Amino acid sequence: MATTAKKSKSYDGFTEEERGAMKERARELKASRGKAEAEAAVLEKIAELPEHERVMALRIHEIIKATAPELSPKLWYGMPAYYKDGKNVCFFQGADKFKSRYSTFGFNDPANLDDGDMWPTSYALTKLTPAVEAQLTTLIKKAVS
Predict the structure, then answer these.
(1) CB-side exposure of 19: number of CA atoms within 13 Å?
(2) How many Cβ atoms from other residues are within 10 Å of residue 46's Cβ?
(3) What average pLDDT does range 40-68 have in this prediction?
(4) Assuming Cys at both sites, which of 32, 45, 122, 128 could form a disulfide with 106, CB separation 3.0 to 4.6 Å?
(5) Residue 18: its pLDDT value, please?
(6) pLDDT of residue 97
(7) How many CB atoms lie within 10 A of CB 88?
(8) Cβ-Cβ contacts under 8 Å for 113 (sequence gap 6 or more)
(9) 3-state secondary structure string, the chain?
């Protein structure tokens, strides 16, 4: 009888973060209808970030637009990402998103970063200095080459 009660009850089972990710995904799908809407959604998401992350994400967005204009901004799991030929090449993930110690800039499989048997695909960011910006620019250029 207790089993029947469990079956008739609706099962939520998702954490608050998972429900938030599902809502973000729904927003991403709506925004992916056009390039202008996708970029507007990315800029809106960047504007919502805490100030220290917002500054980094906006500067990274500017670097990508200048360095790799062939990349299209689009939300990915509620964070700014940049696509080429419909595939996610790179992304910014704020520390606040998963209550992490640092923000991350990462690359996915389509990025041309292969170097031997092992290479980094994700970088911890605490602030953007001119040296860090130069490193990111080099990595982004290589990723889209």
Answers:
(1) 5
(2) 22
(3) 96
(4) 122
(5) 84
(6) 85
(7) 19
(8) 107, 119, 120, 121, 139, 142, 143
(9) CHHHHHHHCCCCCCCHHHHHHHHHHHHHHHHCCCHHHHHHHHHHHHHHCCHHHHHHHHHHHHHHHHHCCCCEEEEECCEEEEEECCEEEEEEECHHHHCCCCEEEEECCCCCCCCCCCCCCEEEECCCCHHHHHHHHHHHHHHHC
Amino acid letter, residue 59: R
Report residue 130 as tokens.
Answer: 């001119």
Burial class of residue 116 (count of CB atoms within 10 Å of its CB; 0-12, 13-18, 19+):
exposed
From CA 34, how far away is CA 95, in angstroms rounded?
28
- Find the radius of gyration of the CA atoms of the chain: 18
Q: Report residue 24: phi and psi, to 5°.
A: -60, -40
Checking if the pLDDT of 113 tops 60, the result is yes
